[in-house]
Automatic annotation (TrEMBL):
This is Serpin family protein. It holds the Pfam family Serpin. InterPro entries: Serpin_CS, Serpin_dom, Serpin_fam, Serpin_sf, Serpin_sf_1, Serpin_sf_2. It comes from candidate division WOR-3 bacterium. The lineage of its organism: Bacteria, Bacteria division WOR-3. SMART domains: SERPIN. One of its GO terms (molecular function) is serine-type endopeptidase inhibitor activity. Belongs to the serpin family. Residues 41-397 form the Serpin domain. SUPFAM superfamilies: Serpins. GO terms for cellular component: extracellular space.
């Protein structure tokens, strides 16, 4: 699920599919889908709190995918905390991995008129040894491309960013600005979507019209228009409409709050349980809609939000436990997320990238060899006052 918040409109970009058989089975991706969506709503709440005048677009699937790869290296309380944050408490790691693979395979089965591409990668600093068991799981269950890279190369970040650019069809060109000495591993998920509306908007109907911002100001935007039959919901506080792509397996849902509650009031009600209830209430109605043509680019460090959701231990340099990843003590340095979404008369194009950056909790100092085998100078100094107590040279130590 990709959740988008734009000014006065709430948009949900969702996979719509038939009920999955055996939904109670630990190997069925329905459990992971539910957990990913629950996690997405919780994270979305963290990111939109106090942001009533800014656009927010995230891909919960991308974020959860990157964190699930990282989960394979976590142990002890760190793994427990990550499982809880991701809504996966009670599931064994093998079940999580199996469901992740099944879900990715299912999402890859697209229809005519829709492109949905998912890619994972692992980028390891060449000097650091990572456990083969960890890398095998990442490759087997998450189809991650494995790279060992000299992070000291001047173009190391560019190499990773070129992969990101390719996997997002040039929509996101970078996720890493520079590589610091303590950074030893990047786990990256990239997702790209392009879908044609089942019923496109007529470009001749698009015209500049007013859009009312949350601060009561107005701006002129290109407004698209379409009339016909829609799956529609009108309930207390808001109205909503479904816009399907191609054959209808993927849809965009748009929720417009009443002026009496505004976007803040709608977001206060926006949770997984309510969404499930609302989704069942849509019905086919004749009507017309006006929707802005828009393009959004979003970038955010997810570390503060994830910490608030219970994952702080994974970022703790003194307490994080990623011993299933490497014998070198590691912690999550940051989780970065970038996204792109464009809506026009023909359809929607969207991309998102999530990078989990692993850092060494104690960066090994560069070693040196210093042999005092020739004349040298010495001094004894009081470090509190700076007073030099003795000063001398040693030219013949044996005398």
């Amino acid at each position: 699920m990709l959740i988008l918040f734009i000014m006065n409109i709430l948009v949900i970009f969702s996979l719509i599919s038939s009920p999955l058989r055996g939904a109670d089975s630990p190997s069925n991706p329905a459990l992971l889908i539910d957990a990913s969506n629950q996690f997405g709503f919780a994270l979305f709440e963290q990111l939109t709190t106090g942001q009533m005048d800014e656009n927010v677009v995230i891909s919960p699937y991308s974020i959860a995918s990157a964190l699930t790869m990282c989960l394979n290296g976590a142990a002890g309380e760190t793994r427990t905390a990550m499982l809880k944050t991701l809504g996966l408490t009670g599931l064994e790691l093998d079940a999580v991995n199996t469901q992740a693979k099944q879900l990715r395979d299912r999402l890859s089965q697209t229809e005519s008129g829709v492109i949905l591409k998912i890619a994972n990668s692992l980028w390891a600093r060449k000097e650091v040894v990572f456990k083969s068991s960890f890398k095998k799981k990442i490759k087997r269950f998450h189809a991650a491309e494995m790279f060992t890279l000299d992070f000291n190369r001047a173009d190391a970040a560019d190499v990773i960013n070129r992969w990101v650019t390719q996997k997002t069809q040039n929509k996101i060109r970078s996720i890493i600005t520079r590589i610091n000495p303590e950074q030893v591993l990047f786990l990256i998920n990239a997702i790209y979507f392009k879908g044609k509306w089942q019923h496109p908007f007529d470009k001749e109907m698009t015209a500049d019209e007013e859009f009312y911002l949350a601060n009561d100001k107005t701006i002129r935007v290109p407004m698209m228009h379409r009339s016909g039959k829609f799956n529609y919901l009108e309930t207390d506080g808001f109205a909503a409409v479904e816009l399907p792509y191609a054959q209808g397996n993927i849809s965009m849902f748009l929720l417009l709050p009443d002026e009496s509650i505004g976007i803040k009031g709608l977001l206060a009600r926006f949770n997984p349980d309510n969404w499930s209830t609302w989704l069942a209430l849509f019905e086919s109605r004749q009507g017309q809609i006006a929707l802005p043509r828009f393009k959004i680019e979003y970038e955010q460090s997810l570390k503060p939000a994830l910490s608030k959701l219970g994952m702080a231990l994974a970022f703790d340099l003194n307490r994080a436990n990623f011993s299933e990843m490497s014998s070198v003590p590691l912690a999550v340095g940051d989780v970065k997320h970038k996204s792109y979404l464009e809506v026009n008369e023909e359809g929607t194009e969207a991309a998102a990238v999530t990078s989990v950056e692993m850092v060494m909790t104690a960066v090994p100092a560069r070693t040196f060899n210093l042999f005092f085998n020739r004349p040298f100078v010495f001094l004894l100094q009081d470090n509190h006052t700076g007073a030099i107590l003795f000063l001398g040279t040693v030219c013949q130590p044996g005398s």
